[in-house]
Q: What sequence folds into this?
């Protein structure tokens, strides 16, 4: 009787070990799949690179338009065109931050940049929180450019549109300040 219960205990322990081993292997396999799934985002970042190229193309078209029509444009029209070019540049910078920061934060480190002389300084301290603050700051800048364009041509916009754009800009600004403050609290 003691021998049978001892065998049963050994068999039970054996099955526990087998179960534990199988579950650990299954858990490891699931973790590998989940971690590897980060590469699913790669087409998104490559798509943003293509979008950046298209945006640069639109920048060149705007610049060519400015160059071709500089003699006939008023000072206000030249200023609007230059603000449009600044807006293109700020959005392109935003795209670059999303592409490089997002890729290096969520997919894979950019190891080849480690000793590169042109490595962006902000990339050394990038994480999801700082990336959000930088993106929010860029959005405030883009919103500010659009608001400035509206103010330059305020006569072409209804008061409701102007108030709406001011409200959007203030919301972006306050959100960025609160986001930056919360990041500071979390990391200090």
A:
């Amino acid at each position: 009787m003691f021998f049978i219960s001892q065998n049963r205990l050994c068999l039970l322990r054996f099955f526990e070990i087998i179960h534990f081993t199988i579950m650990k292997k299954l858990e490891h396999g699931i973790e590998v799949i989940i971690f590897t799934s980060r590469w699913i985002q790669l087409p998104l970042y490559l798509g943003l690179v293509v979008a950046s190229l298209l945006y640069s193309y639109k920048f060149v078209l705007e610049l060519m338009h400015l160059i071709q029509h500089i003699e006939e444009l008023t000072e206000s029209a030249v200023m609007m065109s230059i603000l449009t070019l600044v807006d293109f540049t700020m959005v392109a910078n935003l795209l670059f931050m999303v592409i490089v920061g997002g890729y290096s934060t969520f997919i894979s480190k950019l190891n080849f940049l480690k000793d590169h002389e042109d490595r962006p300084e902000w990339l050394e301290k990038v994480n999801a929180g700082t990336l959000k603050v930088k993106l929010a700051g860029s959005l405030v800048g883009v919103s500010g450019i659009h608001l400035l364009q509206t103010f330059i041509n305020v006569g072409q916009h209804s008061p409701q549109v102007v108030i709406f754009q001011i409200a959007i800009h203030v919301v972006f600004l306050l959100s960025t300040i609160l986001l930056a403050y919360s990041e500071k609290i979390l990391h200090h």
